[in-house]
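Q: Second attempt. The first request was missing the SMILES, so the protein and 2-oxoglutaric acid are both included now.
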Amino acid sequence: MPTISEQQIENYQRDGVIVLRKYFAQPWLEALASGIERCRLEPSSRSKIYVDDEQSRGHFFFDARTVGEIDEFDHLMLASPMAGAAGRLMKSPYAIPFYLTVFARTPGTQHRTPWHQDQPSWSAEGEQACSIWMPLDAVPAETALEFVRGSHRWKTKYARDPFFQTRYVDDDSPDLQPFPDIEAHREGYDIVSWAMEPGDCVVFHGMLVHGGSGNLPANLGRRTVSVQWLGEDARYRVVPGGDDPNISAEVMKFGVKPGEPLVSDLCPIVWQAE
Ligand SMILES: O=C(O)CCC(=O)C(=O)O
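A: Got both inputs this time. The predicted holo structure:
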């Protein structure tokens, strides 16, 4: 299993994001490509077509899958070196997978994912929460997913762009602030991103502001999986207006109650610190 150094842990804790180079070998990439194919053929009720305009702006498919739905995704969540990276970087004694998202764009798709934070829409609260974003295609710098370094410590939860599921937009929680216009004031933010190769991945905190990953050239598509990981301090919460994607319904089927750890057959402990 690839190792995670103390320096990498410190960098992740400080910046809220870190790139891991050559973390996954080729067989993982091939299996995930076939998992994405299967997912596209049999999308779940959580799937979305964000863009469908082959002629000009391309096609952009999204889905979210839990453990027990697609074998190739289960293998990544339950038996890959991803869990160890998540647990070590979150400084948690254990890591549990929450769910996996698929972002698949056809060559030439321009549409960027809007700037957002993930965790305000998750039915899991806690500091030990991260996503690991793993592209199966090369990521040239000008098409990269971008991150506002250190924004996981902002302590502000922002409302989301209507691009995302409308149920969440209806959330009238008083603590959600209007999202700042980062695109119009990019120079005011510490924005970082990385050109990547298949096998690399980026780990980022659940509260880190991020967006992008569009602007694709005509000869390059983008298939990505992003796994959401939780640690020891994570607790199940009911999001007013509904979580996005809707994982809450599944969590409740496994008997987890609000305020409890999410550890269950849906979110099993797959890595523990020695
Ligand atoms: O790949 C993308 O377009 C967005 C990824 C993302 O927002 C995530 O993984 O949380």
